Amino acid sequence: MTTEISQKIPRKVDIHAHFFPPITREEAASLSPDDAAWLRVDGDGRAGTIMRGDRAFRPVVPSLWSAEARVAELDEQGLDIQLVCATPVMFSYAAPPVKAAAWARRMNDYALAFCAEHPERLKPLAQVPLQDIDLACAEASHARAAGCVGVQIGNHLGDRDLDDAGLVRFLVHCADNDIPVLVHPWDMMGGERMKKWMLPWLVAMPAETQLGILSLILSGAFELIPRSLKLCFAHGGGAFAFLLGRVDNAWKHRDIVRQDCPRPPSEYVDRFHVDSAVFDPGALRLLVEVMGAERVMLGSDHPFPLGEARIGTLVQEAAFLDTAEREAILAGNAQRFFGL
Predict the structure, then answer these.
(1) Whole-model pTM?
(2) Assigned architecture for domain 13-19+62-338
(3) What region holds the Amidohydrolase-related domain (predicted)?
(4) Which among 13, 101, 152, 269 could disulfide-bond with 85, CB atoms 3.0 to 4.6 Å apart, if both were Cys?
(5) 46: CB partners within 8 A, 6+ apart
(6) Tens of pLDDT along 62-109?
């Protein structure tokens, strides 16, 4: 049996973790018989496979679909609260909008049910049919009212980046309705050049995340979005912190870079947060120096194997953080950001 950790001030809040509900093949076929994702539970239930039609997509573990297994892992990790969001293959942005809206509603109901088994420990983020902005805004508001603490979106929609007028309208809606947004990279660039060694995750994923951030900064989109928007980029903001000096230098010396961006890119770091999933003390130090400790939140990418194995260890063992900074990154920033 798992235990419920009851305390007034959580010590560790993980804002970036995934789930995948027990979607049947029949359910998936209602969206797309050939490509929609579904869950095959293998053998005695100790393992599973996310499928796409007849094709195996990736092996998964029970804590991805079982709340009991998930909370047992949180107990073992000493984690008080974990936010769970869709595995990006569930987004279904290529589906017809009406079908995608029904799918998002069903997946959000699954997320709410998953978290309802342990409501003090698990908090859901919604998904939305981003291919139709009106439907996406409606589902974000519905899910927020139903108990989701925010919404997760992909960093792009086909060739439309976050500076697209429709996507900016969605972000404005979230700002106006106090709906926190987690941006997750997906559908990574590179195609056949990224076919081996998990290069989409190692190269393209950080690049996609940086592209999402810079599309908002350099396009001037942040000038249109209220400062009240609670916006967080997963995976430590990708390559953003390391390459910000390069971007500032380009802004200073090339008018084509600054034509839509009235201020140096480094002056926009107060418009968004990032998670701490960078896996290296030096990288975390740079991330905190660039973003400020008040804009970094604990994120693990749990329960996938590329996530942090011991959630929070990187932050807990970072000697360059003082006690207040460490506590803010581990829990305090997330409490404020998501209103936990």
Answers:
(1) 0.94
(2) Alpha-Beta Barrel (3.20)
(3) 13-340
(4) 152
(5) 62
(6) 999 999 999 999 999 999 999 999 999 999 999 999 999 999 999 999
